Structure formats: C-alpha cells, structure tokens
Amino acid sequence: MTQDPAVEQLIARGKEALARNQYLAALDDLQAAAERRPGFADVQNMMGLCLSMVGRPEEALDAFARAVELNPGYVEAHVNRAITLNDLGRLDEARDAFRRAAEADEEKGGGGRFSSAAAARLANLHRELGDAYEQAGAPEDAVAQYRAAVELRPQFLDIRTRLGRALIDLGRLDEARAEFQAVLDRNPGFVQARANLGLALFRAGALDEAEREWRRCLAQQPGSAQVSAYLGMLERSRGGAAEG
To answer: SS3 letters for the chain?
Structure first.
C-alpha cells in the first residue's frame, strides 16, 4: 500500500505553515492529516506545538501524549510535553516528563556513531527520502531508506510501520508481518500497524487471521473507514472463493 499523496501534501503544507508561525493554518492541515492517518507521531507532535501556541495547552498535552504513545523514544515530544506541563504549573508531572525525556535520550544514544539528536535527525531525513521514493513508485529504494532510519532509531514506530507498508508493496509479506509485529510488541494500541498486519495476512491468504486483526482494530477504533473497507474486501474475497 503506497503513501497517500493527499495526506503527505497536508503534512508538507502544515510543516510549511508551522515554520512561518501560521499556527491555525498549520493546525487545520495537520488535523486533517491525522484524521486520515492517526499513526504518525511527528504529526501529533506538530499538532501539539500548534495547539500550545494558540493557547490550547490541555489539547496540546493530549497531542504530545499521543506522539509519545506512538513513539516512546520521541525525545522532542517528551520535552514539549514537559514544557507545557511546566507552563501549566503542574510541576511534579513536568519533572516526571523531563525525566522520561532524559531516559529516552540516553536510551537512544546507545553508544552508537552519532549523538542522540543527530541520530534522530538522520532517521527522520531517511524517512522523508523513503516517503519520496514510495510516492515515486520505487518501493525497493523506499525500503532501503526506511531500514536505515529504523537502524538508527528502532523505537520510531511510525517509521517502522512505513517500512512494513513498503515491504507489502514488494510482496515481501513475511518481512512486513515481522515489522508490524515488532511495532505491536512495543505498542499494542497502534491501530495503523495492526490494520497493515491484517493486510499482509490477507495478501498471504491467511483470511481468518486477517479478519481477527481487523476486528481488533475496530474494537480499538470504532468506525474506521479504512478497516471497514478491508473487511468488505475480505467478504468479497470469501464470496468469490465460494462461487468458484
């Protein structure tokens, strides 16, 4: 399954507006992107920044919390959450959030070639390049970039999910399933990863397993149009097999 160009355009436009300090315009685009693809931690973090800047700190905290739920190693989102809590006078919570940011930063350092901040920046650059290759219809190149990002930051679950989707495009279904399962092992509530795990199972012919994962998605996120469409596809596939 390729990237959705409309979502990527919304994210790009939101980033540009945020860079120009046009917070309300950025928020409109980022919220629209998040409604269609709720599993992007960087979008949630940027939404939090916008909400904080327009005087909606409680909503900003919710967005930062979603970002770190999706990506527990997202140091920037931990720090942004801590700053917001501090501004609200919730000092004990702020100290705890700063501690979590420090722990995440230390964990990311890991004695590798790069500092934590540099490795995070490089991982996101690899992710952006992977997105560009995916949109250009070059999933092999996208996989190479996403893998480079994951090697730098295995905790970036949104990037790992993108890697799995690119592997589905290539028909490398076992590898895709392994990536989605790695995400779900860290965060069982990551609905987008579970939906894509169901897709990989469906493509592999494991229809009952696919249905199980998609039903779990609906239990976590009722009314998901994407998952409902997948279940409709599953029923049509079963109907066709029965007629044959």
So the answer is: CCCCHHHHHHHHHHHHHHHCCCHHHHHHHHHHHHHHCCCCHHHHHHHHHHHHHCCCHHHHHHHHHHHHHHCCCCHHHHHHHHHHHHHCCCHHHHHHHHHHHHHHHHHHHCCCCCCHHHHHHHHHHHHHHHHHHHHCCCHHHHHHHHHHHHHHCCCCHHHHHHHHHHHHHCCCHHHHHHHHHHHHHHCCCCHHHHHHHHHHHHHCCCHHHHHHHHHHHHHHCCCCHHHHHHHHHHHHHHHHHHHC
Distance CA 186, CA 197 (A): 14
Is the separation of the CB atoms in 88 and 59 below 8 Å? no
- Distance, CA of 116 to CA of 133 (rounded, Å): 26
Single-letter amino acid code for the residue at 243 = E
Whether 94 has a pLDDT exceeding 90, the answer reads no
Architecture of domain 5-109: Alpha Horseshoe (1.25)
Amino acid identity, residue 99?
R
Task: Name every residue whose Cβ is closer than 8 Å to that of residue 198 and which is 6 or more positions away in sequence.
Answer: 209, 210, 211, 212, 213, 214, 217, 227, 230
Indicate the class that CATH gives domain 116-243: mainly alpha
Give dist(CA 175, CA 198) in Å, integer.
14
Give tens-digit pLDDT for 126-169.
988 998 899 899 999 999 999 999 998 888 888 999 999 999 99
For the chain, the straight-line distance linking the first and the last C-alpha, in angstroms and rounded, comes to 27
Q: Are 23 and 53 in contact (CB under 8 A)?
A: yes
